[in-house]
Amino acid sequence: MSNFFENVDWAEIAQACLDTLTMLGGSLALTVLLGLPLGVVLFLTGAGQAWENRWSHGAMAFGVNLLRSVPFIILLIVMIPLTVLLMGTSLGVAGAIPPLVVGAAPFFARLVETALREVDRNTVEAVQAMGATTRDLVFRALLPEALPGIIAATTVTAIALISFTAMAGAVGAGGLGDLAIRFGYQRFQTDVMLVTVVLLLVLVQFLQAAGDRLVRHFTRK
Amino acid sequence: MIRLEGVHKAFGGTHAALAGVDLEIARGEVFGIIGRSGAGKSTLVRLLNGLERPTSGRVLVDGTDVAALDPAGLRALRRRVGMIFQNFGLLSSRTVSGNVALPLRIAGASKAEIAAKVPALLARVGLADHGGKYPAQLSGGQKQRVGIARALATDPEILLCDEATSALDPETTRSILALIADLNRELGLTIVFITHEMDVVRQVCDRVVVLHAGRAVETGTVADVFLRPQASETRALIDESGEHAEPIGFDGPIVRLTLHGGAVLDPVLTRIARDTGTDFIILDGRIGRLKDTSFGRLTLGLLGGDTARAIAALREKGDVE
Ligand SMILES: Nc1ncnc2c1ncn2[C@@H]1O[C@H](COP(=O)(O)OP(=O)(O)OP(=O)(O)O)[C@@H](O)[C@H]1O
Ligand SMILES: [Mg+2]
Question: How close does chain A come to B85, measured CA to CA in Å?
Fold first, then answer.
């Protein structure tokens, strides 16, 4: 057994795990921070909603679709100048976060918009009929009612981010993906590959399970 | 209290949802709006709290033109107009108490005020022990009671009910209608009640408008509209609730007798039979209640004796067709 893992440097693995978790945590937090308001605005400017506006909705939807249609690996490269401007470097964990956020926030915003649209129309109307402002409607009705959907969207986004971080590893971001590519792929160290894949799998499983639990906890239906 | 003047509402389709409706609803009455699916009933009540704006015409609530209100004015109006829905419209993420408290929170009520008011409202609708439950844990009738408590939270003067009992079974419907009638009597609430069932109108409403394809085809007291329908659309609605069915085969003179109020308690038929020698065969019939009077409607076959005199005698007691 110890033979099989001869190439595995556990300290390096630990560092890679930490890097992956940092990238995931940082980018997920920023994705939610930017994507949630964007999703709400996308929803509110949609047809029949409080801020209905075809032009701004159309423009935002176009921007979101544009960013979602660019393959992440391309986004990583195209964003290098902007990343350097924002973070001072395009390498390491810090360099990975801007492209991760730009890649994931539009995706998350769309999921949030969908979750908000699924809030019962009757409920929205009832709250409007109470004399609610749009702000009341968003904070006291729409977001609480859509919470399970938003948590599910966060889970999906987090898992998508994990695969993005692995890709970011290819351009020098560090983390488990980086390790898998450098040792597992380029030097044929299958044992390193295996360990990183198992760790990534464990992380994905854990996130999915935690997300599902939270969704169940907040669902009162 | 509520006045519609020449109200048109089009959604951009080929025909308008409302096409020139004039209406007046008095303070403290229970006013029914009846009509088939798509007649424009929901559109009409949604105009009353500004959820829709008329394409033309005016909607006046307490003398104010609803369409002319600015957003703040509209919100103030909505606090004075409660609304309940067929599908209840409760927030599934909030408890029963949380749902009832919501309009108060939105109106900026203090914590103490909310804490005092919510239990009283729940007690009023018979849900004193259910404040901590979530809507998903309640039956349909209980959900509608929560809807009513919530609609009453800001002490409105008007309550709009859009098919409030259409999702409920007959027994539960009766209990909700009784609650609505109580609220009308005790709080002097003006109630606008939408339904597609004549029976529901008969039980709670004082006056009613029959809406058909966006037009008010008949307006009047429930007794007038129900017992002496003028428009063919009204007759069709009444027929659906089992009235006016064709009598079973009898070849002889047939009359339809409609009795109102006290006449229901007169021994009309036996007395006339004795006087004229005519026997009556009851082919179809029903004795029932309107909100606060009673009615009888009988389809009679006449057999032997002086039928002309019998019919004349019936005519003295009620309406004969
Ligand atoms: N938001 C809307 N956009 C487009 N058309 C609408 C809208 N709301 C209502 N309509 C149309 O207006 C007409 C009247 O609708 P309304 O909902 O008022 O009918 P209703 O009498 O309440 O019917 P129901 O008994 O099915 O609830 C219908 O033809 C409907 O299709
Ligand atoms: Mg309707």
Answer: 8
Range of the domain at B47: 2-239
| Predicted model pTM | 0.88
Q: Which of B15, B21, B34, B41 to mutate to test the pocket of ligand 1 (most atoms within 8 A of CB)?
A: B41
Domain check: are B235 and B259 in the same one?
A: no
| Strands of the sheet with B319-320, listed across from one edge | B279-289, B294-303, B254-260, B319-320
- Residues A162/A200, Cβ–Cβ less than 8 Å: yes
Summarised one tens digit per residue, pLDDT across range B74-114 is: 999 999 999 999 999 999 999 999 999 999 999 999 999 99
Q: What is the CATH number of the domain that holds B96?
A: 3.40.50.300
For chain B, the domain total comes to 2
Does domain A10-218 fall under CATH 1.10.3720.10? My reply is: yes
Profile chain A (221 residues) by mean pLDDT over runs of 10 residues.
Answer: 72 90 95 97 93 94 93 90 89 90 96 96 94 96 97 97 87 83 81 89 96 94 74
DSSP strand pairing (B30-35 vs B56-61): unpaired
- Same domain flag for B95 and B232: yes
- The reply to whether B128 touches chain A by the CB within 8 Å rule is no
pLDDT tens, B131-180? 999 999 999 999 999 999 999 999 999 999 999 999 999 999 999 999 99
B245 part of a folded domain = no
**Ranges of each domain in chain A:** 10-218
Query: Which of B209, B239, B269 is the endpoint of a domain?
Result: B239
Structure tokens at A33: 């921070």
Q: How many Cα atoms sit within 13 Å of A29 on the Cβ side?
A: 6
